[in-house]
């Protein structure tokens, strides 16, 4: 009854927000001129280098901060294009500098931000405004940061840095209308960066952004650049984010018209076509590949679409073509490995997935799980155990379950039981999972009495647990205890009356173990209506048709089921049907495949003897 058991956003442009504090002092300096100037220099070093302090003149004995040297100014991308203000460093300013930094040193971030903002307004110095902006951002004072950034822009109207920071702040505040002139200024200052910027423009928005406003801003900003395919790409993404998919596709088409076979446009368009028929997507990618035959990303996308549409051999051809060009292409290695696994070419699957793990050993837990399954299928049990034991992270539990069943199947049931009970089951759900796993161990070991005992004990504590009842019905069937299996399945269907799985199990039990074919037919037809094209149900119906001597229908159903699910029991049913139809050679071929899959399967053994399989 093995076939029945099978049912069981990205960062925006931003400035450095690190708070720079002056060193701690053991005691306050006396308010003499020299120590005060030293502290001011310590504060100003975090701006753009400490300003040179001029000597007192006859007109004034108060020192002044003069502009940095021209070379220093050129090295700072955020510096003003013109000369810095020659602001007199009065005692009042010195004290304010001290208040600002000492407030930060003592953890009073808001006071520090306010003080530095006031200094920016008083001095009109871009270095002070930059520092004020950084402090306000670090303090979480968004409005104050924007005000300081405005002072910075006013002090350095031609510098790119303050425009970038202001843009970041306005976007964070969802003030897109105000962000527009800053965005336009940045593009005007560096038009050569426009293509790469438009490709990433969608990363400026976060989950709180007004998507319609973002689309309008994208339209306005890209309007002067519609000769660039990247501008159309930016519009396409913005429209898609407002559910204007037809408009998005038009923009992608416009981008492709400017640059035929352009990868970003092709790959995004295939995402936009997710609701279109599979063959339409495949045809589009074939067309794109003709325009850009050297594009491996497009070829990989085509292979993925072929897999999705179950055209496995064609998908494998595409992946193989990629690997001829680029033998270490990670996506093609993984894709071809999984497709080969699906086609049961385990040698190729093992070679490709092993190469993928070597190529990128990080984040390969899913591949390690698959390699364990491949080793199992090849009868390399020790290799399978090693692979399963190496799986960590999200796939760990799945690997443990495979390991448990492998221990059971290889005559090590106690190892499996110990592994199950390594973790204490605290919740009802965890206890049920442990019970089901323990039952599966004894089922794999063909110790059906122990499996029955474990399940019965658990059901006595939780009599309305549908999963436990279903599992016990499987064990009862394997014990040829039809009344018990039938009773548990009826209870199961009382709890879940529209379960295709339960209806299928009851129908199959009646068809396989009794001659109550009409009753079985009612359950199986209802299951098929609830879950059409399920290969497990197709197998049950096909086996019932065999029992009813409706052999042509049986062959059709079982052929479809076996193609979709090459299970040994399904293969045995198909072999029996072919043999009875007189197609003995084909029957023996199918039976040989089933025996290779699981020579110990009850149906494989019984039907193999009936048809005289060598």
TrEMBL record:
| Region feature (Disordered) | 58-86
For this protein, the record's PROSITE patterns field holds:
TPR (PS50005)
Top-level taxon of the source organism: Bacteria
Could you tell me which SUPFAM superfamilies the record lists for this protein? Answer: TPR-like
**Low complexity bias (residue ranges):** 58-81
* TPR repeat ranges per the UniProt record: 330-363
Q: Which UniProt keywords apply?
A: TPR repeat
Q: Which InterPro entries match?
A: TPR-like_helical_dom_sf, TPR_rpt
Q: What is this protein called?
A: Tetratricopeptide repeat protein
What organism, scientifically named, is this protein from? Silvimonas amylolytica
Organism ancestry: Bacteria, Pseudomonadati, Pseudomonadota, Betaproteobacteria, Neisseriales
């Amino acid at each position: 009854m093995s076939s029945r058991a099978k049912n069981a956003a990205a960062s925006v442009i931003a400035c450095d927000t690190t708070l720079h504090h002056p060193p701690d002092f053991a005691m306050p300096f006396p308010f003499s001129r020299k120590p005060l100037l030293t502290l001011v220099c310590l504060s100003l070093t975090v701006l753009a280098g400490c300003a040179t302090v001029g000597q007192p003149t006859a007109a004034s004995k108060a020192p002044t901060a003069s502009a940095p040297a021209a070379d220093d100014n050129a090295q700072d991308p955020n510096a003003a294009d013109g000369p810095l203000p020659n602001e007199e460093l009065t005692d009042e300013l010195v004290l304010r500098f001290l208040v600002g930094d000492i407030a930060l040193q003592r953890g009073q971030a808001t006071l520090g931000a306010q003080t530095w903002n006031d200094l920016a307004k008083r001095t009109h110095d871009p270095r002070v405004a930059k520092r004020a902006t950084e402090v306000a951002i670090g303090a979480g004072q968004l409005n104050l940061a924007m005000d300081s950034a405005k002072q910075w822009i006013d002090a350095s109207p031609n510098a790119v840095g303050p425009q970038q920071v202001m843009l970041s702040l306005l976007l964070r505040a969802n003030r897109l209308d105000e962000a527009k002139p800053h965005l336009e200024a940045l593009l005007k200052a560096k038009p050569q960066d426009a293509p790469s910027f438009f490709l990433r423009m969608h990363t400026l928005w976060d989950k709180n952004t007004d998507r319609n406003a973002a689309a309008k801003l994208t339209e306005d900003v890209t309007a002067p650049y519609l000769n660039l395919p990247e501008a159309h790409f930016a519009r396409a993404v913005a429209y898609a984010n407002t559910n204007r998919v037809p408009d998005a596709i038009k923009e992608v088409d416009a981008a492709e018209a400017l640059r035929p076979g352009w990868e970003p446009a092709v790959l995004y368009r295939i995402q936009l076509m997710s609701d279109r028929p599979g063959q339409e997507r495949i045809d589009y990618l074939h067309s794109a590949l003709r325009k850009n035959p050297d594009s491996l990303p497009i070829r990989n996308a085509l292979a993925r679409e072929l897999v999705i549409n179950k055209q496995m051999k064609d998908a494998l051809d595409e992946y193989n073509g990629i690997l001829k060009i680029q033998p270490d292409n990670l996506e093609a290695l993984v894709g071809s490995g999984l497709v080969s696994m699906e086609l049961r070419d385990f040698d190729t699957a093992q070679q490709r997935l092993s190469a993928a793990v070597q190529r990128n050993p990080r984040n390969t837990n899913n591949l390690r799980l698959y390699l364990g399954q491949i080793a199992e299928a090849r009868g390399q049990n020790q290799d399978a155990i090693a692979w399963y034991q190496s799986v960590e992270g999200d796939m760990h539990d799945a690997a443990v379950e495979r390991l448990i069943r492998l221990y059971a199947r290889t005559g090590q049931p106690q190892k499996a039981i110990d592994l199950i009970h390594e973790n204490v089951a605290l919740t009802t759900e965890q206890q049920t999972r442990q019970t089901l796993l323990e039952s599966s161990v004894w089922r794999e070991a063909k110790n059906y009495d122990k499996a029955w005992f474990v399940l019965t004990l658990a059901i006595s504590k939780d009599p309305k647990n549908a999963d436990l009842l279903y599992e016990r019905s499987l064990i009862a069937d394997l014990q040829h205890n039809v009344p018990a299996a039938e009773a548990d399945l009826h209870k199961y269907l009382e709890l879940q009356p529209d379960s295709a799985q339960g209806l299928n199990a009851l129908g199959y039990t009646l068809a396989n173990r009794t001659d109550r074919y009409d009753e079985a037919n009612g359950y199986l037809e209802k299951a098929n209506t609830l879950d059409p094209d399920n290969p497990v149900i197709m197998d049950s119906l096909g086996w019932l048709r065999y029992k009813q001597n409706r052999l042509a229908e049986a062959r059709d159903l079982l052929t479809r089921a076996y193609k979709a699910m090459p299970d040994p029991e399904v293969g045995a049913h198909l072999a029996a049907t072919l043999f009875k139809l007189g197609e003995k050679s084909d029957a023996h071929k199918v039976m040989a495949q089933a025996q290779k899959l699981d020579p110990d399967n009850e149906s494989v053994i019984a039907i193999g003897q009936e048809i005289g399989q060598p």
